[in-house]
Amino acid sequence: MATYFVTGATGFLGRRLVERLVARPGTSAVHVLVRQRSVDRFTAAARHWSRPDLVVPVIGDLGEPGLGVAVGALSGAVDHVVHLGAVYDFTAPEADNQRANVDGTRHALEFAEAVGAGLFHHVSSIAVAGDHRGRFTERDFDLGQRHHSPYHATKFAAERLVREQDRVPFRVYRPAAVVGDSRTGEMDKVDGPYYFLPVLTRLARLPKALPLVLPNLGGTNVVPVDYVVDAMTQLMHADAPSGTTYHLTHNGKQRVTDVFNALAAAVGAPRVRASLPVRLPRLRATRPVPAAVLNELGVPAEVLPHLDLPTVFDSTATVEALGGIEPPGFASYADVLVRYWAEHLDPERAWRNSHSLRGKRIVITGASSGIGRATALAVGERGAIVLLVARRQAELEEVRAEIEQGGGTASVHPCDLTDSDAVDALVKDLGVVDMLVNNAGRSIRRAVHLSVDRLHDYERTMALNYFAPLRLTLGLLPGMRARGFGRIVNVTTMGLQTDTPRFSAYLASKAALEAFGRAAGRELLTDGVITCAVRMPLVRTPMIRATDAYKAIPATSPQSAAKLVLRALTSETEVVQRSEGLAMELLRVLAPGLARQVLNLAYRLTGESAPEARTRPERPLPVLATALVRPLWRGLRR
């Protein structure tokens, strides 16, 4: 029976290697190093292992001497220490690479010695070859090559630490650039050849038979993750002396053009038919213009110089040790990688169907009644995953039941949006969000002269109508920016175009929300996040039911209002408005004096609804007479 201790077990390679180890008949336990703050990540990974009962988490840290692990019962009980923990990021600072790759390896060796491990398996990288030109075999290490990035230099230094010690028997594994699983396409991040895919998807609009001519793109070395973990599992248990090194690579030369063409075939793009006898110039990340262009294309400038490898890796000895097993040809699984990338990793995948709501996760506040409820039902009918937010859970449950009865999907998230702690918890609970509809609101109808001792009215409306949606937007925004897609719809009011009297508190709060959305939208445009204001007319909702003055005024239905929100969610417009609102706004701009008179007249022709000053509207004829005489009489004063 074999016992293992694995670092980096929750990483891309580590998760798969642990699965191979627990599936081996002779495995008694797999101990895995877990940082205290990464326990949740370990728990998530454990759900996918076939024998989680064999996996034992050990709290520690690569940055601590001896991994920060008390040897205790592990002394003499570990057959294999597998060191996978490292930083693989060309853009990471040198200090991070040093801490994880070099110091982490030193500490892992200390631990292996302390427990008396039978073998130390060090997962290195072909990066150790640096800028070496020509063939590089498993026996080669220091050939005078240089290393032009912190990642390359620290992987070389880490392997040197392993080679120069004699306290623990060891083996070294040098994987090539690792891509997704050749059978499922599963991958955890965009790297290496994946940087070609956004370009290729655009080239796919051209005729497939169009011949492409590009500069010589040089060489590369790519293998699928399933080959790496399968090969490691076999080689770890092979009979070989200490110091044996394995190349988990494509054997020999692999051209970047061949990889490019395999991906092009998978997406239906033209292929490279000829290469010019020149190479791409090396671009430095420190040059601002190339770096800015590459960033827009989704390619870190630090990565570009390393896409072309000058080294040809010889894995003859490794293939022999594996009994002739070699990695599959890239062209044989390129289509599998592309499918997985398109569904899970394409940074623009949300934009491909940006005008469709199907599958989109949409948060709707104030979803228990009125406009919010009608909008929730409408987006649910269109296949959205509706995240219902309001204070009253029972009413939200009714909306969810109606959505699910119609074949839709919804979840309930009760929350007092004026409570900052509750909103913070809500943001964590919601998870990934594609679209946000800030609909919850409060309206107060009261003349200014009746509000001189009611500052709290203004504070209450600002709390729910402005600060609440602002807090929720700021909480969800980082996720939208990270995914490169988002819609933020702020339900405001046509009153901003008409300056409706008696609504100074309400209009001020909605004006603040709309102004925030406009300003933020200018900033977020290049992040793929679009903001839109829906200037609602009067809507027959529970919010206006208690005001008698509204009963005789024409109002639209919540269902019609929901159509305006749908237009905002499925377009890239900045404002959704009705024609009558636009007409009033034009009147205000072209004839401001007349607009003021008209609204003052309307104010006087309608009564107060505030309980402490409820009045009947003034009689029309005296009001009209005053409206005609007052400007003339006051004009004579000048």
From TrEMBL:
GO molecular function: oxidoreductase activity
Keyword terms of this UniProt record: Oxidoreductase
CDD domains membership: MupV_like_SDR_e, SDR_c
Domain Thioester reductase (TE): 6-232
Gene3D superfamilies cross-referenced by the UniProt entry: NAD(P)-binding Rossmann-like Domain
GO cellular component terms, A-Z: membrane
Coiled coil segments of this chain: none
InterPro entries in the cross-refs: FAR_NAD-bd, Maqu_2507-like, NAD(P)-bd_dom_sf, SDR_fam
Keyword Oxidoreductase: yes
Family: Belongs to the short-chain dehydrogenases/reductases (SDR) family.
Name the record gives this protein: Thioester reductase domain-containing protein
Organism: Actinokineospora terrae
